[in-house]
Design brief:
The complex is a heterodimer of chains A (434) and B (306). In chain A, helix 2 packs parallel to helix 9, helix 11 packs antiparallel against helix 14 and helix 12 runs parallel beside helix 14. Chain A folds into two domains: 105 residues, 3-Layer(aba) Sandwich (D-Maltodextrin-Binding Protein, domain 2), CATH 3.40.190; 229 residues, no CATH class. Helices cover 68% and strands 5% of the residues of chain A. Chain B is of the alpha/beta class and 306 residues long. In chain B, the strands form three sheets. In chain B, strands 6-7-8-3-9-10 form a six-stranded mixed sheet, with helices on both faces. Helices cover 35% and strands 29% of the residues of chain B. In chain B, helix 2 crosses helix 3. The radius of gyration of chain B is 24 Å and the shape is elongated. The chains are: A mainly alpha (434), B alpha/beta (306). At the A-B interface, helix 1, helix 7 and helix 8 of A face helix 2 and helix 4 of B.
């Protein structure tokens, strides 16, 4: 067995045998599912019913407020305004909508108050404003002797139908799906880099604090050791992801089996209606499916693998160099920040900029920049990226990768034999020249 | 004795700091070679260069007639001063791994391991993790790892630190046995009594320069001052003192004896011991007459403080 293979094997085995690896591998899918159930349980909980007092001096708005699951409106137009305010202070009511009497509706628009102890939610404020505005608008129509029904009928609502130049139907919401797919891949790469990069760093620090490094370095080249570490750790990571994928698929399959049986319609809906609804649903589903199939899936998967390797190796070289430079994990923070920042930047750019403008300047530039390209480019690919851009981006990524590995191995080579003090950036620069 | 390892004008600089300044050494085959020097003298830098952990800026190293190259890694066994093993790895696996790194096949490594574990009486440790072992036990493992691949050159950096006297003795005997089997041993330590006991050659490095090198006896000869420790029983102490100080310089000294005699360290200068002895025997009863041979400790302190 070659020495590199020997190192890779040891790193892999020591990672995989680690208790926390085993626990993480089998517990985190359960944790994920558990959290999913917990969140859906939380969102199914009804909010507390809130009582809202309405003091309407005009008398025309109060009936417009319809009780909902969350809000109950109580007409207190006849009560004394100050006593209602007092009872809000004593928290008998959540809040008070106060509509004063004015000369005309125009002057009413800015006179209506909402009084409460806690600031109300934005949706509630919007709702109240909308209810009152609609009423005033309708009243204004009446005053102007306009036919409200005719106006309602005249109101148009345009629904843009999306078509592609190639003639296929397009769907709204597909952008969200695209960003979700690209985002999932990009996010996966980021998580992998952070988790396993850290693992590489810790394993370097371990060897350094153990002082075994000197024995090992007397048998192998530091570069071999560093690469062996990075590759061995990544193999452990890939194994973990594989297990997760398989467990996830099994879970998904069993869940769909479980719900599939429950969801069999035992319905009261007339069969023909059900049929047409199903048909309509299936055409939409068909459209979505077509869209999904039209995504450059092959490109996406191939690029995922390439960017995954490039990005992970690039970053874990940094992590290895940092591990070599410091004596313990606490000292590593100062050097880790510049590594984490581009990763976070990549994810933000992916979710905000790429979503709005997948082929804009910002998105394009950051899908070329090697520290963010593995994340940003993967998010762009579902929107269709010219192949030459991908080629340039990958070339830059791997060019940087080789440079960084060279640079990291220099720091690594010196750093692993330096004990005792935390180096400064300046010293790291000096190490490059040793 | 032929030369096994030759260090030729090796220079190593870290930035502006010179760790080794044209250091040359000749290590004879089959010797136990003491590499001495105060802290920070450059010993570790030199050992790291011999181990090919770092490269010299200039100069060369010849091992067994060949310029040092990666192939030589398996001819060298290194026990660093800073001991360490993977804490959560099992003893057996760890030894196999490290032996394979030195170029042994797995089967070969297993045979050697069985031999050494048996020899040191540690067969039961195979499945233990290093973190379950005491410091001294871990040191033993490390010693095994160092000698397992039957290296031609063994480099021990403070091999006895951390061992109790019994185990230190076991290790010392093993080192001597390895020498008998033909290994050459480079031995870096601050414990002068073990240098005295084991080494036949020494070199002293101080402030990045080699100051002394040679056979231990030759070095001692070189540092010989022609001084004698003398014990004499006499009634006329003042008369004797006067007679001695006329010809020699004296220093007070102390050694263990059963008599209450006059004890002196006498520097003979260029005269011969017999002249002094004649003088002494004519004045009283000589109970003690020994040449003061410089210890390695004396040589070390004298050289370094100059």
């Amino acid at each position: 067995m070659s020495i590199l293979a020997l190192i890779i094997r040891r790193e892999f085995i020591s990672k995989v045998r680690n208790k926390s690896f085993i626990v993480m591998t089998f517990l985190s899918p359960l944790l994920f599912v558990g959290i999913g159930f917990f969140v859906s349980y939380l969102s199914s909980l009804k909010a507390d019913l809130k009582q809202i007092a309405v003091h309407d001096e005009t008398g025309i708005f109060v009936s417009e407020f319809k009780n909902s699951e969350e809000y109950k409106y109580i007409n207190l137009s006849n009560s004394n305004l100050n006593s209602i305010k007092d009872s809000i202070k004593s928290e008998s009511y959540e809040g008070l909508i106060y509509i004063p009497k004015t000369r005309d509706f125009k002057s009413l628009e800015n006179k209506i108050q909402y009084v409460s102890n806690e600031s109300p939610s934005i949706t509630f404020v919007d709702h109240v404003q909308e209810v009152i505005s609609n009423k005033i608008t309708n009243e204004n129509f009446k005053i102007a002797r306009l036919d409200t029904l005719a106006i309602n009928n005249a109101q148009a609502e345009v629904n843009l139908e999306l078509k592609k130049a190639t003639g296929e139907d397009s769907l709204k919401g597909i952008n969200e799906i695209k960003i979700a797919i690209g985002g999932a891949f990009g996010y996966l790469i980021m998580m992998f880099i952070v988790i396993y990069g850290n693992m590489v760093m810790r394993s370097v620090i371990e060897e350094k604090t153990n002082r075994i490094i000197e024995i090992i370095i007397s048998s192998v080249k530091p570069f071999q050791l560093m690469m062996g570490k990075i590759i061995g750790t990544s193999l452990a990571g890939i194994l973990q992801f594989l297990i997760w994928t398989i467990v996830g698929l099994i879970l998904m399959f069993s869940v769909s089996m479980f719900f599939g049986i429950n969801a069999t319609p035992t319905s009261d809906i007339p069969p023909e209606m059900l049929h047409s609804a199903q048909q309509e649903f299936s055409t939409v589903a068909q459209l979505y499916l077509n869209e999904l199939l039209n995504l450059p899936i092959a490109t996406l998967l191939i690029c995922f693998v390439i960017y995954f390797i490039g990005g992970y190796f690039l970053y874990s070289s940094f992590y290895a160099a940092i591990g070599a430079a410091v004596d313990n994990e606490t000292d590593s923070q100062q050097f880790l920040l510049p590594i984490i920042l581009p990763l976070i930047l990549g994810v933000y750019i992916g979710f905000f900029t790429v979503m709005n403008d997948p082929h804009g300047t910002v998105a394009t530039v950051f899908s070329m920049f090697p520290l963010t390209s593995p994340i940003v480019m993967l998010m762009r690919i579902p929107f269709g990226v010219p192949w030459w851009q991908i080629v340039i981006s990958i070339t830059i990524l791997f060019g940087t990768f080789f440079f960084v590995v060279w640079f990291a191995s220099k720091i690594y080579r010196v750093g692993i034999l330096m004990y005792g003090k935390k180096p400064t950036w300046k010293e790291l620069y000096k190490w490059l020249k040793y | 004795m032929s030369t096994l390892l030759e260090v030729n004008k090796v220079v190593k600089k870290y930035g502006d700091y010179t760790a080794l300044n044209e250091v040359s050494l000749t290590v004879p085959k089959g010797s136990i070679y003491g590499l001495l020097g105060p802290n920070g003298a450059g010993k570790t830098s030199l050992i790291r260069i011999i181990n090919q952990i770092t490269m010299p800026d200039s100069g060369e190293i010849i091992l067994d007639g060949e310029k040092l190259n990666p192939k030589h890694i398996q001819y060298i066994g290194y026990l660093p001063e800073e001991r360490g093993l993977y804490k959560s790895m099992k003893v057996g696996e760890q030894c196999l791994y490290l032996a394979q790194m030195k170029g042994l096949s797995k089967a070969e490594a297993k045979i050697q391991l069985d031999y050494w574990f048996d020899r040191l009486g540690i067969q039961g440790w195979w499945n233990k993790k290093i973190q379950e072992l005491s410091k001294g036990m871990a040191q033993k493992i490390q010693f095994v790892v160092c000698v397992l691949h039957k290296p031609k050159v063994l480099i021990f950096d403070e091999p006895f630190s951390g061992f109790d006297p019994v185990n230190a003795n076991i290790i010392k005997d093993e080192i001597l046995a390895l020498q008998e089997q033909g290994s050459t041993i480079i031995f870096s330590t601050h414990r002068m009594e073990s240098v005295e006991e084991l080494c036949d050659h020494i070199a002293l490095i101080h402030q990045s320069n080699k100051l002394i090198e040679g056979r231990l006896d030759d070095v001692k000869n070189q540092f010989r001052t022609n001084s004698f420790e003398v014990g004499i029983l006499t009634d006329n102490v003042e008369g004797l003192m006067l007679a001695i100080t006329q010809n020699y310089t004296i220093q007070p000294t102390n050694f263990k004896s059963l008599n209450n005699e006059l004890k002196l360290e006498i520097n003979l200068g260029n005269s011969l011991p017999n002249e002094l002895l004649n003088l002494l025997t004519s004045r009283g009863q000589v109970t003690h007459f020994v040449e003061k041979i410089p210890s390695v400790n004396d040589i070390f302190i004298k050289t370094v403080s100059q």
